[in-house]
Amino acid sequence: xxxxxxxxxxxxxxxxxxxxxxxxxxxxxxxxxxxxxxxxxxxxxxxxxxxxxxxxxxxxxxxxxxxxxxxxxxxxxxxxxxxxxxxxxxxxxxxxxxxxxxxxxxxxxxxxxxxxxxxxxxxxxxxxxxxxxxxxxxxxxxxxxxxxxxxxxxxxxxxxxxxxxxxxxxxxxxxxxxxxxxxxxxxxxxxxxxxxxxxxxxxxxxxxxxxxxxxxxxxxxxxxxxxxxxxxxxxxxxxxxxxxxxxxxxxxxxxxxxxxxxxxxxxxxxxxxxxxxxxxxxxxxxxxxxxxxxxxxxxxxxxxxxxxxxxxxxxxxxxxxxxxxxxxxxxxxxxxxxxxxxxxxxxxxxxxxxxxxxxxxxxxxxxxxxxxxxxxxxxxxxxxxxxxxxxxxxxxxxxxxxxxxxxxxxxxxxxxxxxxxxxxxxxxxxxxxxxxxxxxxxxxxxxxxxxxxxxxxxxxxxxxxxxxxxxxxxxxxxxxxxxxxxxxxxxxxxxxxxxxxxxxxxxxxxxxxxxxxxxxxxxxxxxxxxxxxxxxxxxxxxxxxxxxxxxxxxxxxxxxxxxx
Length: 564
What we know:
Blueprint: H1 4-20, E1 31-33, E2 37-40, E3 45-53, E4 57-61, E5 66-68, E6 72-73, E7 76-84, E8 92-99, E9 105-112, E10 119-122, H2 139-145, E11 151-155, E12 157-159, E13 178-180, E14 185-190, E15 207-210, E16 223-225, E17 235-238, E18 241-243, E19 246-247, E20 253-256, E21 259-262, E22 269-272, E23 275-279, E24 282-284, E25 287-288, E26 301-304, E27 308-312, E28 315-317, E29 320-321, E30 329-331, E31 335-339, E32 347-348, E33 355-357, E34 362-366, E35 374-375, E36 382-385, E37 389-393, E38 396-398, E39 401-402, E40 411-414, E41 418-422, E42 425-427, E43 438-441, E44 446-450, E45 453-454, E46 466-468, E47 478-480, E48 483-484, E49 487-488, H3 503-506, H4 527-534
Parallel strand pairs: 2-9, 10-11, 11-14, 12-15, 13-16, 14-17, 15-18, 16-22, 17-23, 18-24, 19-25, 22-26, 23-27, 24-28, 25-29, 26-30, 27-31, 29-32, 30-33, 31-34, 32-35, 33-36, 34-37, 35-39, 36-40, 37-41, 38-42, 40-43, 41-44, 42-45, 43-46, 44-47, 45-48
Antiparallel strand pairs: 1-3, 3-7, 4-6, 4-8, 5-7, 8-9, 20-21, 48-49
């Protein structure tokens, strides 16, 4: 696909060529706009588009609700910045005119969605107008009519994407996707005989978005979220199963809202620059392959472009990358906060089997699991790379495996990363290299471990559960009130003499500390001490830190994710 910006570059070259000939020809004024249409939300917000000219420009709007930042721009490549006022009525439009002279101007149509907030009801075979359960529409028809704040209620059943992604190729079946391009709510889990006022039950009434087509092809992304960030708004998705996507052909992109959505990133779900909240959502059994072009990344979910994602009681499980990095989740310059969620049994033929933050990502997991993931290189469980940060509170990281000797079974830090591991249990992870529990490599990687158990992992005989490559050997981690391999650390951060930890006899099959003379039952931190530590974080950790993974109050000084 050719971008309008490639034409802008051509124009710049032409301008330069024209300037070289100005002694032979009269000067010709030129003007180009980067778009002809701007679709904006119903709320007050700022937007912009590019213009290119070899002469100074004048700007004007033909409606009062479009407010320009300036009415004059100097020649060159510039941005037209404007604010739209909130719309409480029907859809409306206005025109921004960029003018050089009376003969040469460009017009950009600004289309603002309706401020009215309709609700829609959909079913897999809907043919109605979507106004009720008795007259359900298709998902795509409802999405077309939805406005910021709308809710789409989805009846149980299996849905298949039928509409090509914006700016995609209609001849490419795999470009069909469930595109969510507005800040709306999508809620599944309603029965076939639902009536107005019915409550969803996602476990009983499975609502499945499946990217597998009858032709045998698969969607590049089963779900694609392209909604622009707007203050006070988000995309809210509840009660859906997202499956059947195939991230492939990574060398090709589709440009939407100034972001390049690679066809090969995010088989189940691709999120670009949006604010998204997932509740009771399962992203399962998606893949990344080389079926078409360059092998893809992130079989399960890929978020990029400063996206913010919240996951609540959700799963990214059983996703498979058959030839590259990223099995479960990949956060690229984006943030993930997950509560009571699972990232289990994903695999990658490369790095990052379970969860990947790279680059400049922030990943916070509360009461969650990263377990039974596998790969062939760094970071089978959680892999942070290139200035990424993480916080784990009440998390289980167990049974992650890599076949590589590079290191990093459960947690891997690489290139200026930082992680705080609080009241978590990391055990039963296995690699042939160093640091099957936690491993640090390349540049400065900071590690803090508090009230946790990291023991019973299997690694190279010359290594241990928490280890570092030589370039990180001198960077001493902060370890307090924790059991690391066979050693026990005091609340002050020193190795406690006379105490030892044996995971074979002191951890149950359910990862509970057990047994007589077990220091994990007596030398940990209680709720009061943990809350004091939580006050040092931003945002403050209190409700999340004072109980264990299952919500049991930490009245005793017990280490690890589970106290009973």
